[in-house]
Amino acid sequence: MSAFLDTMTERSRQRLEDAARVRPVAEVQLSALSTPPPRALGGFGRSFDLIAEIKPRSPSEGRFPERDPVATAIGYQTGLAAVLSVLTEPSSFGGSLDDLRSISASVDIPVMAKDFLVDPYQVYEAREAGADGVLLIARILSDEALVRMIAVAAQLGMFTLLEAFDADDLERMSSLARPGAATLIGVNCRDLDTLEIVPERHRDLAGHLPAGQVAVAESAMSGPGDVERVAGLGYHAALVGSALMRSEAPQELARSMVESGRRAMAVAG
Predict the structure, then answer these.
(1) Count of domains observed in the chain
(2) N or C terminus of the chain: which is more exposed, having fewer CB within 10 Å?
(3) What is the CATH number of the domain that holds 101?
């Protein structure tokens, strides 16, 4: 595992320990189970869809222009985003469960908690804060942990986005994903050692995508042309964060990305 993922995983474990000292898992679980049912993905991925991300900063790009997270989320929704991704990692991305809670209460589309989750406790936390889905990074989780966390999400009615970086990750996902569960498969083309983008990874891994599951291309998309490229490779959706956070017209950029992806998907058949 890369030094970056090692660091982020250790910080996540420390946050988990701190939270569990304050509130036992049974309390958080009961609270999560008592929330209203999460919003469903519906027909996500049948025509090309966009997961639009909200994050104050990133380790590779620094701080983004300061914007109100709720207003940004509403703008993305108006711009045809089908799902919102909200960074909840505080130390390197500046996110929080409070941001997630505020955004979830202000939009109609599903909201995903994006973090370096390592334990079912954190899935319960995310649901309690209003998340309809969670990102799970295969590289930082054992098979047992990944299965448990997918099962907890399914119990809560949440979807999962399983993130892969290479063919080995995708092979594990194919065998561990729960049949019939609301599971999306994501391919992140960021190099974990340098944090640089490797756009060819979407192409190279397209042939390894598990059959019958919605595939999401992550990173390396700055405009409609990039979205058109991944849609032509067979991906059903894109997760876009930095380009939208930098844009002076994020709502319009989101809409143009969705429209370009749908045109390309229609051409590809």
Answers:
(1) 1
(2) C
(3) 3.20.20.70
CB-based contacts of 135, cutoff 8 Å, min separation 6: 85, 112, 113, 114, 115, 117, 160, 161, 163, 186
The tens digit of pLDDT for each residue in 169-194 reads 999 888 776 655 589 999 999 887 78
Per-residue pLDDT at 119: 97
Q: Is residue 35 part of a domain?
A: no
- The larger pLDDT score, comparing residue 220 to residue 11, is at 11
CA 111, CA 262: separation in Å to the nearest integer?
Answer: 22
Global model pTM greater than 0.85: yes
Beta strands in 75-225 (DSSP E): 83-87, 111-114, 133-137, 159-164, 183-188, 215-218
In a domain, 166, yes or no: yes
Domain residues for 56? Answer: 3-19+42-268
Q: Is residue 25 part of a domain?
A: no
The residue-averaged pLDDT of 219-236 equals: 94
Rounded Cα gap, residues 47 and 266, in angstroms: 8
pLDDT of 101 strictly over 70: yes
